[in-house]
Amino acid sequence: MKLNTIRKCKCPICRKNYVSKDAVYDHIERSHSDMIPEGIPSDQYYYDLTHDKHTVCVICKRRTPWNPKTHKYARLCGRKECAQKNREIFKERMMRVYNKYNLANDPEHQKKMLAARKISGKYQWENGGEPTTYVGSYEKDFLLNCDTVFNFESADIIAPSPNVYRYQYNGEDHFYIPDFYIPDLRLEVEIKDGGDNPNMHHKIQAVDKVKEKYKDDALLKQRDNNYIKVVNKKYGDFLALINKLRSDDLSPEERRNKIKIKPE
Question: Distance between CA atoms of 183 and 72, rounded to whole angstroms?
Fold first, then answer.
């Protein structure tokens, strides 16, 4: 899926049209600075003018802080208790829906097995915060770029994703957990090496391709989260997508069905 071109955005004060929300933010700061409350950035003021109410923490209902990178209020208040409770809710939901068929298909067991692999590690963020688990060199490179290029922090990214997606293979239920989840953008991220280092046995290759297609289909069909697959460390589409999501420049269809990007 290709990203839609940027639509015109309107200043909520004087109704002038601009080509992007960033342009509207600049306009508000230049032309309506006398209306902006002290200590409030122009993008936050724009959000407050165009939304009915302040976002509250999905767990404790306290007011949440402004996230200048996403141009939105955060989903969580920032307290560790709420972050932990949020993870527990995801886990309980998974257990209720999927009933844990067996240990091999148990997502929590899969997470522990992935974290135990020799190529796993913990990425230390430049600005501190909790380290983020990765399970290979491509995942580590993604975190490095998120840290040093894409302006994310430790609290912005969950690894692996707390969300679980189900697909069927040979008549049996299987579970799929994306590599990363960015809650404020509602974005699932899958990292792949593009097959440069495949298992050379042709039967295993065939099974892997079929399973990969089923996993892709599971993410492409759902409407709860945006999704992108990053292949061979090519981050162009990822950068374009996060900029689009951060600016909240979405069409009605994109808001309803979410944006899904998978390289051909």
Answer: 12
Q: What is the mean pLDDT of residues 208-215?
A: 82
Distances (CA, A) of 79 to 58, 133, 260: 12, 20, 31
Closest among 183, 152, 5, 226 to 89, alpha carbons compared = 183
- Residues ≥6 apart with Cβ < 8 Å to 159: 132, 133, 134, 139, 143, 179, 180, 181
Give the strands of the sheet with 187-192, arranged side by side.
180-182, 187-192, 226-231, 260-261
Domain boundaries, the chain: 100-261
Angle at 115 (CA atoms; ends 141, 117), nearest 5 degrees: 85
Closest by Cα among 262, 107, 89, 260 to 187: 260
How does DSSP assign 122-151, residue by residue? Answer: EEPPTT-SS-EEESSHHHHHHHHHHHHTS-
Distances, alpha carbon 198 to alpha carbons 202, 206, 228, in Å: 10, 11, 21
**Crossing angle of helices 42-50/21-31, nearest 10°?**
110
Model-level pTM? Answer: 0.68
Dist. CA 25–CA 18, nearest whole Å: 10
Sign of CA dihedral 33, 34, 38, 42: negative
Angle among Cα 16, 20, 25 to the nearest 5 degrees reads 70
Structure tokens at 224: 């709860």
My answer on whether omega of the bond before 160 falls inside 30° of 0, hence cis, is yes
Question: Could you read off the pLDDT of 62-95 as tens digits, one per residue?
Answer: 999 998 888 888 888 888 888 888 777 766 765 6
Q: Which two tokens stand for residue 182?
A: 């960015």
